[in-house]
Design a protein that fits this description.
By secondary structure, this protein is of the alpha/beta class. The protein is 37% helix and 16% strand. The chain starts with a helix and ends with a helix.
């Protein structure tokens, strides 16, 4: 069966709004390390990792072995029974979280993790008002869409929450873009303080340390620490959405929030994607008093199931033992400088940004500041032809390329990918 046959079947039974990359969508059949193969046998260097989910490597033997062995014993029993792998992974995540007296609740996705965090915060604070960042994305559930500040991913304006959007998630666009870093932070804090004077007390601020779907944008280091001081004075919680930034991807830190740590850790951290290396794991870490504030029964049928927890434990152990955070810092640093060098003379590249192995390349119409989503799509196609898979995103018409390889990326693979990407960018000029 060809990809076109499969595409026809896909369109007959799946929603029209379920996005597919490429004019001729491809079926990925298998992978190894940092590479994947399609149904036609073409090999690609993977610089997107299943939307940042294949965090360590494709077909990582340690994870494959753990999943196989656990599946041979028992796959699932629900949270109504004691679950040793779930307790063991929760213990490790609690210790790594930086949150004192932390409790961990497992879900199946980042969307569900953020949904849970919102329920905890609004229950704990007895408020349904949420502060969110402009250009943000937090998932596809009804509540998560209600706090997403990105029109391209907001199919409805209906929401169980009252959402107020704050400045600061995008450093180089918006009313404060021309300011220096310190002045930018001060202006955003002033805006937040003013906003809080005009509303009933919010439950929480939710923020991605680096905005993922938004195109890998971020504020200057320290912004959320400054926000934290304002919030803490009023008892407002800080939720760090680490679905894309967690586990060392940014290189400099294990968690993205640690770039904003001077005022202490968040009250709640959400995570997902990379911890399972492709297995379906999400979760919430919160102080015990917040996590335990619910006064009704709750369970998670598939959150924390034995086979996914075994994968998470094996994957986390591999990541820590092989210092993949350090590799993300070293190889990511080389890659971002290489990309800045090769794009310096390409008029359609507005900015190369990011840190570690989380890099965004924003494209505009040459000579303007106008987003160029057609160019982003064309580069994606050209890179595929060259043997490289990329992502795209951005709050301004999906005009940013997203580069997020597995954290075990080698220097040689970084150089190879940068060369393919350079050719793809030049081919559309």
């Amino acid at each position: 069966m060809t990809d076109k046959d499969l595409l026809g079947r896909h369109r007959n039974v799946l929603p029209d709004w379920l996005a597919l990359y490429y004019q001729d969508p491809l079926e990925i059949t298998h992978g190894e390390g940092r590479h994947v193969w399609d149904a036609a046998g073409n090999k690609y260097l993977d610089f997107f990792g299943g939307i940042l989910t294949t965090m360590t490597a494709h077909a990582l033997p340690e994870v494959t072995k753990a999943v196989s062995e656990q599946a041979g014993r028992i796959i699932h029993s629900s949270t109504l029974y004691l679950n040793r792998p779930m307790v063991e992974l929760a213990e490790r995540i609690s210790q790594l979280s930086g949150i004192p007296d932390a409790r961990v609740f497992f879900t199946t996705s980042g969307t569900e993790a953020n949904d849970t965090a919102l329920m905890l915060a609004t229950t704990y604070r007895r408020s349904n008002t949420i502060l969110a960042m402009r250009n943000s994305y937090h998932g596809r559930s009804f509540s998560a869409v209600g706090i997403t500040g990105n029109r391209g991913w907001s199919p409805t304006s209906l929401s169980p929450l009252q959402t107020l959007y704050v400045h600061g998630g995008v450093r180089t666009r918006g009313p404060y873009a021309s300011l220096g870093d310190d002045e930018f932070i001060a202006a955003c804090v002033d805006d937040l303080t003013d906003l809080l004077g005009h509303t009933r007390p919010p439950a929480a601020l939710i923020a991605e340390p680096i905005q993922g779907v938004g195109g890998f944008t971020s504020p200057p280091d320290g912004l959320y620490a400054a926000f934290r001081e304002v919030l803490a004075e009023r008892g407002i919680l800080w939720i760090a959405d680490e679905v894309q930034t967690g586990w060392g991807r940014t290189g400099d830190h294990f968690w993205g929030w640690q770039a904003h740590a001077s005022s202490g850790p968040p009250d709640i951290v959400t995570f997902a994607k990379g911890i399972g290396n492709g297995m379906s794991i999400g979760g919430v870490v919160a102080r015990a008093e917040i996590m335990n504030c619910l006064d009704a029964n709750s369970i998670s049928t598939f959150g924390g199931t034995q086979v996914t927890m075994a994968a998470g434990l094996a994957n986390l152990s591999y990541l820590l033992e092989h210092d993949l955070q350090g590799n993300a810092r070293r190889v990511g640093g080389l890659l971002i400088e290489r990309l800045r060098a090769v794009t310096a003379q390409i008029p359609g590249v507005r900015e190369v940004r990011g840190r570690g192995l989380m890099i965004g390349i924003e494209l505009v119409r040459p000579g303007t500041d106008q987003a160029d989503p057609d160019a982003a799509s064309a580069v994606l196609e050209a890179a595929r032809e060259g043997g490289l898979l990329l992502g795209k995103g951005g709050g301004h018409n999906t005009s940013a390329l997203r580069v997020a390889p597995p954290l075990s990326l080698t220097v040689a693979e970084a150089e190879e990918g940068a060369a393919i990407l350079e050719n793809a960018l030049r081919s559309i000029q």
